[in-house]
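Appendix B. One record, verbatim.
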Amino acid sequence: MKQYNLIPLKLHFKKEIFWMLFFLFSILSLESIHSQAEDVVSIEVDLTTEKGEMKPIWAWWGYDEPNYTYMKDGTKLLTEISNLSATPVYVRAHSLLVTDEGPRAALKWGSTNAYTEDAKGNPVYDWTIIDKIFDTYVDRGMKPMAQIGFMPKALSKKPEPYRHYWKPGAKYEEIYTGWAYPPKSYKKWAELVYQWVLHSVDRYGKEEVESWYWELWNEPNIGYWRGTTKEYIKLYDYTADAVKRALPTARIGGPEVTGPSWDVSEEFMREFLDHVTSGKNYATGETGSPLDFITFHAKGSPKVVNGIVQMNMSNQLRDIDKGFEIVASYPQFKDLPIVIGESDPEGCAACSEEDYPHNAYRNGTMYSSYTAASFARKYDLADHHSVNLLGAVTWGFEFEDQPWYAGFRDMATNGVDKPVLNVFRMFGMMTGNRVAVTGDLAYDYQEITNNSVRGTKTDVNAIASKDDGTAAIMVWNYHDDNIEGVPTNVKVQVKGLPKARVLMHHYRIDKENSNSYEVWKEMGSPQNPLPEQIQELEKAGQLKLLTSPTYITISESTSTIEMELPRQGVSLLKFSW
């Protein structure tokens, strides 16, 4: 047998292993460096390139339960909402014409008893409760988006059963009772509307009522309207005519359909727009009907996947995209104001987390980061379709005397603000014109509209504005999956700040800042917190500075601000000079 000298071979083998390991280590090191580099997201803001007006499209709110308006926590929250906006906030509420049956206020229920009839069938008008609701708005400098609905019992084509007693966990269809039906008499309905507008002018003045928006019904393409599309159009003709007869300069709109991307909703919306353009008016016999603004709804669709809440922003944005597309296809309506009458992560504000686990996003920072990211894309979609987006109503108010942090879609719980309200406080500091935002960004409005925010990369992006002597940049770190993630290093490069001493305020919403929910959990999640605990929670619910205000000297054309932004966190950089 031939003998071999194994020592040189062993040495050679060891050298091969050494170089292989060295080469592998080098690759891993480079990949690690590259990975760290990818973790730094660069956002470039150009204050010299304007994109259009920073309209306060976010300064619109709505809710099902109108009688919460004047209750203790309702008045407190409305005061806070009014105070966060430099411009008047518009408020839309259901059930302003619903007849009393049992307690006025309950989940998904409200009433005013504005219209009843005497024994001879003559109208009896009582504006006491409607006045109480609208007084609460007007006293705070807010404006009603006056929803004309629903059907009073005395006018309903099918009045029984009228009152529903829905609670979380029950079937949603149970709410569609006698208030949802067409009127027995369209003339009596029109007279009710006419008298309501006349009364409003008498009480608040012509100039004030001219600044309101009157709109008919809610989501008539689903159970909220138990009539046909043609019956809704007929009701609209009588309603619009009555509004204009009472105040010719009043603004009236519709049709408040939900889900424009659904075939049945698009069909409803187009039939309505075709009619107000060229159809025979049911009330006047003339061609067409008045239309001063157009409304529709858009909702997301969260679900629980492997025990984790997963949002679906694309569902909401697709509805907005389709709604804008429909409006833009009518040249005569292309410049008409659009109000997205409800624009939310999902459909049911009164559905609690306990009964609907996918609503677990509502108490914490996922709702706030979703709100920042989605509102920015509403501006982008309006730009894309060249339409006139006036407002997007957040359908989330408060629920009086409910358990603490029960997971309703609301801005506050028992008078304590949730993190989401602080995003609107941030928006309230963004005025003037929107400016260009670019950079190495994983998502834009089109990508999220098509695919939402999935995969390994989060949506780290920004919206920015500039006004006389100020600029503001909102930066968020959003993902559809409600899980913990590592923070992202963000480098914000700002072009166009004046070469001077500039004061910067850095506000933050995250787990440690502007977050009453985390403080409540640290307390042990008390359902009967002590007065001093409530005081602490109220303080924690306000918008907080991440650091002290800082003066920075701007000497170059581009300035850089670096931050570490947690997942589902939102920052606002506010510059003033």
